[in-house]
Amino acid sequence: MLKPARGNRAQRPGPGNHQSGHHRPKTIPLEPKADAEAQTVSFALPETLAPGKYSLSIEFTGHLREQAQGLFFVRYSAGAGKKLMLATQMEATDARRMFPCWDEPFSARALSRRHRSEKAPDGLQHAIKNEKSLNGGLKEVHFEATPPMASYLVVLVSGELEALEDSSKGVRYASRNDRSKKETGRYALESAKKILGYYNHYFGIEFPLPKLDQIAIPGGFCGAMENWAGLLTTSRSCCFDPRPVRWKPNKMFLA
What we know:
mainly beta, 2 domains, Zincin-like
């Protein structure tokens, strides 16, 4: 905070907050005031804050829907039964549906996440810092902090996926898919290495992240999303089966 202030505002409502001063930690409970039309939440401060560094902690809950806005769920068939996975679609202004944030492209922030799920699924976003097992068959995954980035490029996927992996020039590549379609992601994996290398040369700027995942979402997801380090597509747009079939996408379409 660069000047004295009596209030703060962010996108997406949340019911509580914690704040600490720069020298001596101090907790100030605040009441949120939500504006549904503006899609913001404000916190009036009981006292004027001097310029300095502060933290704002908000406890919040959200709604999980099947519509691809913010964090959503996907039902799909795999093997002998039905499966369920989680994925995100933040563009243009749906990151605020998942967590409170300054949900504007000009407000780039470093982001760090903890994700809890059943032990079997994989949580995907940025590089994993550590993970641990919890009671009740759960696991918690703590991701490394991202470089400063716009909130609409955040991605989180949790599901029973398998990956084909490779690396080139310091970047780890992965094509992640439903377990029964793992091998159909190989063409997309090889194409990504060639295309990213071409872009690095063409623009004269190296890809700034340590990893690049291509994640195929079965059904329930329209088009594709260019999330940073985690590109989401439909299975149809990411999978190439070299075996003769009645219809299949051509390589030009996939690339």
